[in-house]
Specification:
Length: about 900
């Protein structure tokens, strides 16, 4: 598709950016005095530039018939909104009867004669009155001016000087029987100004309408605005004039809305160079609308709308409709001339910037253009200039920030700025409907040159980021009052960093968990961490991030010292450290949540919010709380431990969305998965790692302590892991253990026998295998068999020892109270151990929650889980 300016060629003054207000400001007085824009005062140019609308042709033909035959309406009122084509219609009448005979081939003249069914125009006298031109204190009255124009001032001189309305007989004598056309413009404005003799003006108007109605070849055409000028006084005057003219008037509308498309093309463009390209462009848009019908207003899918697109080209119909229907509802907006002037500025701006688009949509209107912006602000107030700057066009405008956030494609198409512009352009009205719906907004933006999928996310982000964009009752609009986004931003600025830090620390405490025997939070000094054999997870303070230059120095201190002494059990320590970037995200979200909570607490502010905003506040607080656990886990993603005496960093990566893990659970699972934390070890590991070469006897205490002290060894869950490996090694014959005077070798060690006082023997003394007690007696071995080896000798190869069953209970039943904080240990130490043994067991829970518990937690989380695992709920009590 070609660019619009290659198909619809604007007038030269538009291309050159030489627009003049007088081009669009019709003024009957200027025409009478042969001044002002050439398009109005030169008949040939005027006829060329005037599109013969149905309303205008009906008006001209009616006046021609009345003046020619004496039949038809004698008093005609033109009542349209300000700037709706009334003055243009009066100028059309003036030029038609002054110069129509010499321009009979002009479409306006030719079609008027055909519609009036006459061959020639009658010779008529033309009386004119423009209410804004005359001084109501020293100037002549309307009746004095009419008498002067007819050369009969002497008849009404005294009435004029005394400002007394003449009677019907005097007016009839002044007008006579000759065909007369009376044109009265801006009458309401004059009447408001003529306060001292306003009642006489009203009397004159009433007498004049009666006299004209009685004269067969006279016509009075007057203009009245549809809304009153000058406040309450203007309203009263307008209503009075409407009553006077309403008795005898016929009302004509010079320009209907769809005809305005023709007026625009006639006034703003030299030619449409390629009608085929117009159809091609319109068809492309229409087909696009059919494919995305569910996202657009119903009207956009009709054949009638396709035809409106063809007529409005190169503008999209929404550009013109929004101006004609919404902006024209302001009493200060001149409908026809206002629309033409603004569209002329838009064309000039787009052509100068060579905006290569097949059709001009509302999103293409450049609010950064001073002339365009000022034309709009004239009707809604200059206060919106700062709204435009902050939200739409400024270098740091929120719409620009949205585009940067969403990516290069959004920036290239200026998607967010365009949508915001469309809301601004379409959201204002002096009528009842303010704002635009999402479907209307999409219609203002959707085009074949734009990937359609990107609009939805841009609209969503605009509602989240802009400061003065309001969304209410399904409609978007800009207001001077800051929206919830701006209120939240202001509240965020009021929240101190210490408040944020404390809230972050509270969240860390909440999700730290207890998957380690000790979970230590925010340690800063060596004496914060006990030097014991139990595993310890240290969660550093938020400020001590992975990237902070002092963090490794702090860790070296915590790993290396315990109080004033060197730390002994360094292989029991793991630290969890925050990532700087993800911590900043967590802090930002916490700050935002605190802002929403503050808004909710401030009752005076809360009461000013709409129900929709209140719902948004509540929903976002819940969203923040619902994602807080993920954000905490995502921030604390770096694990620091000692390996071979050096600091070793490991990354936990991004947690699973919706996770319910605690920080300590996540670290523990990571260490277990990577075999950095072992729940069991082999006897061979004890010999290879914990017993020095050449050493035959090692105390069990030294072996156990080795796993807790030396960082070249894996971490073990507790001392029982080492004891269990020693028992297994003894039973398998890997080594022996001496407890007191007794040596255990290739036999079980009683549970209460193995302790720190025992000694491991790499080479058991001869005959150290003790005779088992009757209870321990293993089955007899098979007799040894001689086996030949390579050198021909025979050796005795003993079969492997037969494993013995450990003592067991026939039945086991337990009832215990477990604190909620120790649930993880219950699962790992009891239930998991039973399952690993392949034992069938029945696990019954008796749950009693102290304090209020959310109904949704019971009905959704607890009950749904129990249903899914097919649990039998025996009793349940709720209050």
């Amino acid at each position: 598709m070609k660019a619009w300016y290659e198909v619809a060629i604007p007038r030269e003054d538009i291309l050159q950016g030489e627009l003049d207000d007088s081009m669009f400001a019709a003024d009957l007085r200027d025409v009478l005095q042969e001044r002002g824009a050439l398009e109005y005062r030169i008949p040939e140019k005027f006829f060329q530039q005037t599109y013969p609308t149905e309303g205008l042709l009906n008006l001209l033909a009616q006046v021609v018939r009345r003046l020619t035959t004496g039949h038809g309406d004698a008093v005609i009122q033109l009542q349209t909104p300000f700037g709706g084509g009334k003055t243009h219609a009066l100028i059309s009448l003036y030029h038609l009867f002054r110069h129509g005979d010499t321009h009979r081939e002009a479409p306006l003249v030719r079609h008027t004669l055909e519609r009036a069914q006459v061959d020639k125009l009658p010779e008529v006298r033309i009386l004119t009155f423009v209410g804004t031109e005359y001084d109501t204190i020293r100037g002549k009255t309307p009746w004095g001016l009419f008498a002067e124009q007819l050369g009969r001032y002497d008849l009404l001189e005294e009435h004029d000087r005394k400002r007394r309305a003449p009677g019907a007989e005097n007016l009839r004598a002044m007008l006579g029987d000759a065909p007369t056309l009376i044109l009265m413009d801006e009458l309401a404005t004059y009447a408001v100004s003529a306060r001292d003799f306003q009642d006489q003006v009203m009397v004159f108007c009433q007498q004049l309408t009666e006299v004209v109605k009685a004269l067969p070849h006279s016509v009075l055409v007057a203009t009245l605005p549809s809304s009153a000028p000058y406040g309450e006084e203007g309203e009263r005057v307008l209503r009075q004039l409407e009553m006077i003219f309403g008795r005898v008037q016929a009302i004509y509308t010079p320009v209907e809305q769809d005809e305005f498309f023709h007026v625009i093309r006639q006034r703003l463009f030299r030619e449409i160079a390629d009608p085929t390209e117009v159809r091609r462009t319109v068809d492309a848009f229409y087909e696009l609308y059919q494919r995305h019908a569910e996202q657009l207003p119903e009207k956009a899918r009709t054949d009638a709308y396709r035809e409106r697109m063809r007529l409005a080209y190169p503008f999209h119909p929404e550009v013109i409709d929004l101006l004609y229907e919404k902006w024209a509802s302001f009493s200060t907006f001149q409908r026809t001339r206002g629309v033409l002037k603004l569209l002329g500025e838009v064309l000039s701006d787009l052509y100068r910037r060579r905006v290569v688009e097949p059709l001009i949509l509302p999103v293409h209107i450049n609010l950064a253009n001073g002339a365009i912006q000022q034309e709009l602000l004239r009707h809604i107030g200059n206060g919106f200039a700062s709204v435009i700057q902050r939200d739409i066009i400024g270098d740091s405008a929120q719409a620009r920030m949205v585009e940067k956030q969403l990516g290069a494609e959004y920036e290239a198409h200026q998607v967010a700025r365009g949508l915001a512009t469309a809301v601004f352009f379409g959201g204002f009205s002096a009528g009842e409907k303010h704002g635009v719906s999402e479907a209307e907004l999409r219609l203002c933006a959707l085009r074949p040159t734009l990937p359609t999928a990107i609009l939805g996310e841009a609209i969503h982000q605009l509602t989240r980021k802009l400061w003065y964009l309001h969304y209410e009752d399904g409609l978007y609009q800009f207001r001077l009052q800051p929206n919830l986004n701006k209120i939240v931003l202001d509240k965020q600025e009021q929240i101190t960093q210490s408040e944020v830090d404390e809230a972050v620390r509270e969240a860390i405490r909440k999700y730290a968990g207890s998957a380690f025997p000790k979970v230590l939070l925010f340690s800063e000094r060596p004496d914060d961490i006990p030097d014991t054999r139990e595993l310890k997870l240290g969660v550093l303070a938020p400020d001590d991030t992975r990237a902070h230059p002092e963090t490794e120095r702090l860790l070296d201190t915590l790993f290396g010292a315990a109080g004033e002494k060197p730390r002994t059990f360094r292989n029991t320590l793991v630290f969890l450290v925050a990532d700087e970037q993800h911590l900043a995200n967590l802090q930002n979200r916490v700050r935002e949540r605190l802002a929403y909570e503050r808004i909710k607490r401030e009752r005076a502010l809360w009461e000013t919010l709409s129900d929709e905003d209140k719902n948004t506040v509540n929903r976002r607080i819940q969203d923040f709380l619902g994602s807080e656990q993920f954000q905490v886990l995502n921030a604390y993603r770096h694990v620091a431990l000692l390996r071979d005496g050096r600091l070793d960093w490991r990354s936990l990566g991004t947690p699973t969305a919706g996770t319910r893990e605690t920080l300590s659970q996540r670290v523990r699972q990571f260490l277990e998965h990577d075999d950095l934390l072992l729940k069991q070890i082999s006897p061979r590991m004890i010999l290879d790692k914990a017993v020095s070469a050449g050493t035959n006897e090692v105390s069990v205490k030294d072996i156990v302590d080795a796993f807790f002290r030396y960082t070249h060894l894996p971490m073990v869950e507790n001392e029982q892991v080492v004891f269990q490996a020693i028992r297994r090694g003894v039973q398998e014959g890997a080594f022996a253990v001496r407890v007191g005077e007794r040596v255990y070798y290739q036999q079980p060690i009683p549970m209460d026998a193995l302790n720190y006082d025992a000694t491991l023997l790499k080479e058991p003394p001869a005959g150290s295998a003790a005779e088992p007690t009757p209870e321990e007696a293993p089955p007899e071995r098979e007799p040894a068999q001689p086996v030949a080896v390579n050198d021909g000798h025979q050796v005795e190869l003993l079969p492997p020892p037969v494993s013995t069953e450990q003592p067991s209970y026939r039945r086991y039943k337990l009832r215990a109270s477990v604190p909620s904080a120790k649930t993880y240990e219950l699962v790992q130490g009891v239930l998991t151990s039973l399952m690993r043994q392949g034992l069938n067991f029945r696990f019954t829970i008796e749950l009693e929650v102290q304090g209020a518990i959310p109904k949704s937690l019971v009905d959704i989380s607890i009950r749904e889980t129990l249903n899914q695992i097919q649990a039998e709920v025996e009793t349940e009590e709720k209050e």
